[in-house]
UniProtKB/TrEMBL annotation:
GO terms for biological process: lipid catabolic process. Signal peptide: none annotated. The keyword Lipid metabolism applies. The keyword Lipid metabolism applies. It comes from the Bacteria. It holds the Pfam family PAF-AH_p_II. GO terms for molecular function: 1-alkyl-2-acetylglycerophosphocholine esterase activity. This is Hydrolase. It comes from Amycolatopsis vastitatis. Keywords: Hydrolase, Lipid degradation, Lipid metabolism. Residues 1-22 are annotated as: Disordered.
Length: 369
């Protein structure tokens, strides 16, 4: 009797990748666990204090012998794969270009600071392309997971998911997000002074590395209104950028007196009356840009990750375009690299001219009057 045929070996998992940053510096990163004893977590019925995970991203002095950080830590990555309907052994999330624990390079002076807020149900990893680009150009970038509205893994392996978003809890989510950012700004001052509010290992060179008089903020999707509302509540943030985000709350009618930039796709002034009202009440420098054919995910890491995973998801080219838009991913990445950096260069470093007018280098970008 013939032996049964040997089973076919499983195909190797698809390794997703992210494009590397283009600035002159290597990138360091470190995750930190913070606890705010002054606040109860609104989604924890036990009344536990608010816990946050953040990551610091910065130009690195050296990277020898260090490992690059994953896009998501292991348990969160496994949950992310399951949430997207994929088998755990079918795909691996990207490895970033940030070296864990690398010493901080001061670049001749203290580093301007940029804080990042993700979209509803996302994570602090969702705009890693922009974050790494800024760090490679000499910015100190702080990414924040809004616990209960994110996919968050804590150092003990716990994974917190998102509370279902509804009109009933929307105000609580917005309030928690703003309080998260203000708490993180407080802790950055402690870190800059040589303290350690996390108890985690900190990179060499962190003390006095940040210029906390030059702080900007950007957000993707719901991170956009988080940026505007935090600026309204806290004058420490000098400039704000929204990647396809709407606006909510008192800032809509009050406006802002500091620089603000909108990057449009789904969240446009033409489609969202509150955004137009906010725009009319902006009293400082302002700019509204967009890309022809862009979709909401065009301005996130998913513009490159979705095409790589399309075959695993069983998506046709038309279905991929429905998700990430008609913009060629390489061009979307070029815009993600150039325009946030130009915004913070202009308003935190007071240099650069890309935002003066439409550029022939980026013909897909339109300035919206």
């Amino acid at each position: 009797m013939a032996a049964p045929p040997a089973p076919s070996p499983s195909p190797p998992p698809v390794q997703l990748t992210l494009p590397g940053p283009t600035g002159p510096y290597s990138v360091g990163t470190v995750p930190l666990h913070l606890v705010d004893p002054a606040r109860h977590d609104p989604w924890d019925p036990s009344g536990a204090p608010r816990e946050l995970m953040i990551s610091l991203w910065y130009p690195a002095r050296s990277t020898a012998g260090l490992r690059r950080a994953p896009w998501l830590p292991p348990a969160a990555a496994a949950q992310f794969v399951r949430d997207n309907g994929l088998q755990p052994d079918a795909v691996k999330v990207p490895v970033t270009h940030g070296y864990t624990g690398a010493p901080v390079r001061h670049c001749g002076s203290r580093l301007p600071v940029v804080v990042y807020s993700h979209g509803n149900g996302g994570s602090r990893s969702d705009s890693t392309i922009v974050v790494e680009e800024l760090a490679s150009r000499g910015y100190f970038v702080v990414t924040v997971d809004h616990t209960g509205d994110s996919l968050t893994e804590f150092p003990d392996g716990r994974v917190a998911g998102s509370a279902p978003y509804s009109p009933e809890n929307a105000a609580a989510i917005r309030e928690a997000r703003v309080a998260d950012i203000r708490f993180v700004l407080d802790k950055l001052a402690v870190l800059n002074a040589g303290g350690n509010p996390s108890g985690s290992a900190l990179p060499d060179g962190l003390t006095d590395a940040m210029d906390l008089g030059s702080v900007g903020m950007f957000g993707y999707s719901a991170g956009g209104p988080t940026t505007a509302s935090t600026m309204y509540a806290d004058g420490r943030i000098k400039a704000g950028l929204s990647l396809d985000g709407p606006v909510f709350g008192p800032v809509t009618d009050a406006g802002l007196d500091r620089p603000y930039m909108l990057v449009d796709a789904r969240a446009s002034r033409a489609a969202i009356p509150e955004l137009q009202t906010f725009w009319e009440h902006l009293r400082g420098w302002r700019l509204d840009i967009g890309m022809q054919g862009a979709k909401h995910l065009t301005y996130s890491d998913y513009v490159t990750l979705i095409p790589q995973a399309a075959s695993l998801l069983g998506w046709s080219p038309e279905q991929v375009e429905q998700q990430i838009g008609a913009v060629v991913p390489a061009r979307a990445i070029a815009v993600q690299r150039a325009y946030p950096a130009a915004f913070f260069d202009l308003h935190l470093r007071h240099r650069g001219h890309l935002l003066d007018r439409p550029s022939p280098l980026f013909p897909e970008v339109r300035f919206i009057p």
